[in-house]
Amino acid sequence: QAQSHDRNMRVSLLLVAATVATVVGPNEGFSFSFSLARPKAPAKHCIAALPGLRLGKVLDSHGRVSGALSLKSSTGDDLNRLQTALNAAIEAEDYNTAAEYRDRIKQAGAGEEEGLAGWRALEVPEWLADRAERLGFRIPAQVQRNTLETVMQRQDTVIRSPTGSGKTLAYLIPMLSLLSDDLLDDDIMLHLSRFQSKQATLGQRVSKLVDNELAPTPLAVIVVPTRELGVQVSTLCYMLLGGSRNNPRIQPERTLTQSLPGSKTNMFTYKGPRRVKVVGVWDDEMLNSSMPVEDYGLDALKGAHILVTTPKYLAPISERGHVPLGNARVLVVDEADVCLSGDDGEAMRKVLSTNFNSKYSLDGSPRVRIFAGASLQKSQVDEAADGLFLDLPATVGNNVGKLESSDVWASPQRVPSSIQHKYVVCDKESRALGTLAKLVRNAITTSAANGQQARIIVYAKDAPTAVRVASPLQNSLWTGLGGDIDAGLWGLSVLLPSAEDTCKFAADNTTLLTYESSLRVMEKFYYDQVSLLVTTPLATRGLDFPNVTHVLNLGIVGTAADYLHRAGRCGRIGQNIAQPGEVISVLAQQEVPLLQALGHELDFVADSMLLPADALVTEASSSDDKVRLLEDTFQLFSDEGATPGDDW
After folding, report:
1. Which among 123, 453, 501, 573 has most CB atoms closer than 10 A?
2. pTM for the predicted model, two decimal places
3. Which stretches does DSSP call E strand in 313-393?
């Protein structure tokens, strides 16, 4: 019988067992037994140099960090931009600049000397730290560092930090760290079970031992408000576990990056557990597939280690009882303020109180519960604590240094300070779409003049409005950007949340726009195959798109939480700090005070702006500009008078 506290020794013993089973053969009568001990937590240590980061890299011709990342740039105290600049300096191996950004991050917070150690210093397993670095997450963001400190102590945690600060990774890394031993054991045991024989031989005895030691599944349950966010979370989790983002069913034309020579993330560089099963349940088809075979299902959740679902489908999973949710050792509720409210909020609370009201899973293992959200309210956390699905939770943010939970709640909600906020007053509602088209054109041309590409999200108030404005807007861009084939295919797609995607384009749609699934639209915008996204506030809640330069609100003000999440699509960690982002709202005059009140609450100032001079057509304008005005009038204002009072 062999025992060891060292993980490598444990792995070696099991691999030796597999080798012996192979060499001796299934009928040689050889037998042995062994027991496995849990490893001690690794000693804390710091990493002096962390080269190689892809996020936010902006280099000059000599491979140095460009002026956009220099300390003279106006990063201010925006932690998202400072973290991005730090990452880019490390990627360029400019460690002097990286050290200065490190100091500025400390100055932006409490100033505590805690250094900028990597993942390993925070007790993240070696395989997971290596994988995170290869994916470009070289240094933990502040909210990720703070969350690791509490979750690794198995303390219930509430993550409340601004949009774009890295909350998804903040709960995925601790979750996988806590489950690492079980996932590795499961992987090795499944490998050993390949040597199972039908007779009473070594293989069978090993397999029975394996069956008794494997942790019951699911090991973790993650709840998100929408299918789209569920896909994003599942994909990132899958990538951390050795997978790839590329999906040939959604993007058949893309080359698989793990197949490229020298890829840092190919399958041969991954050192962690394999055969980890991440399953998402966010539609009726998958819910029915999850049922056991005897109930005419496919038993799709059998052996699932990590379950990602929405409140709408978590309730029937719990009611049908075919998945023992109580086995979960980690519960995550992302965008918890949405999950605990709305039509499915009551059912969600019932499931939590039934399956997750204990600090221990069904097999007696400690359980950690994590709630996350940029606009999560303390009253919702208190209600969760009263319902026993949170127990004296620690509240963490993106603060530097130690803060009590009460201090985190006392910190006001705010959008990243580097984002610019503007508004345009439109005297007639029927002219709002024409104003929007001019703003889009100006964003495209201005960004191109600065050597950048505009990536724009347009928010409509609901799904029918988004569908209605998309066709004339695309037609306008076709003619307004020169009329050539590149302008026409510059790229516009409509992203509707799964709850609203029954809206289709009208039969008389005369543009190149076609209705596509929300998942395909997400991938096309993520990979820059389209650069203009028309969507609704619900569709993009929590979604992370790279380098969004402009957010345009078409007649929407909303609540502080709504504006916070719309504006938060830009100014995120990893985005190009040379273009921190602009949020422009097209409003009626009576809506301006509402926007200014939001600015007071969220700590920003919205400036009035006029349409760019080149967007105004006069008698002195060129014939091309006059033709464009006529085309705009036809495309964008053709309904004026036909539908009076129509609110675009």
Report:
1. 573
2. 0.78
3. 330-333, 368-372
